[in-house]
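Good day; I would like, with your permission, to put a structural problem before you. The record follows directly beneath this note:
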Amino acid sequence: MEMHPQARGFLDAMTAEGGPPLQELSVEEARGLSGVLVELSGPGPEVASVRDIEIPVAAGSVVARVYEPAGDPAGTIVYYHGGGWVLGTLDSCDAVCRALAVESGCRLVSVDYRLAPEHRFPAAPNDAHDAFVWIAENLGHGGSLVVAGDSAGGNLAAVVALRARDEGGPPIALQVLVYPVVDHDMTTGSYEQHGNAALFLDKPGMVWFWDHYLPDVAARSHPHASPLLAEDHTGLPPAYVLVAEFDPLRDEGLAYAAKLEAADVPVTVRRFDDQIHAFFMMVNLMESADVAVAEVGAAIRTACAAAQTTGAGAA
């Protein structure tokens, strides 16, 4: 399938803008550019209320942003932003978090976990897990719980689901994994196909992210870094896995969905065969993003309702 015209136009505009590739930038320079996508996408929809809070974690505290929907929440989503564990802020995902809160009818808590290289692995998954447990106990109000994230945030959502199962954590109604990083292997078919293309994310960029996040290559096989490599995927919560065709991460997302299905975990796979990595964040900017957020929101509503009926996945 051909790339969506809006995605192609976005990439063409990036190329025309010029500038060095990610792997040639310092962390500070890369973070300085991260606000461009926020400006392009514009604000998200209004929600009933938004507030920033501090959440205690083992290492101290992290900041989180709580989005309350109109009416009684259908459940609570714990969201982890993307950015290769190096980039990303609460503001960088504000628009999509607002949209997802509206579409799902859920309270959404966006967690600002610590970033590498200042805080390397396992800081991010530890923060993600500790924040999830605290949110379940203090903001869940007995409702259904969902973990969600995009790219590196999808990695963290998958790891939180693993740890909740392994460590007796709160039950999860649904894990939403949007083009997640689930393995450190960069030799998959989609890496071969798209890793060196002029796309939003490429192989040199992922090497840059991994090198900042977890320089010890052998340690990258730890299941809390590469959840695809966990020995056991049985008993994990149902999953909604979204992938984009023009994305080096496509095949590992599909492999994770297949691994979950083989372990008898209910899985929905949604492929956007004309889209690029990061499109999900581009609400207002790309029609596909609005469609994807609406579909994810509907899946979350259904999962939350089912969990309340069965008693599974509730805080």
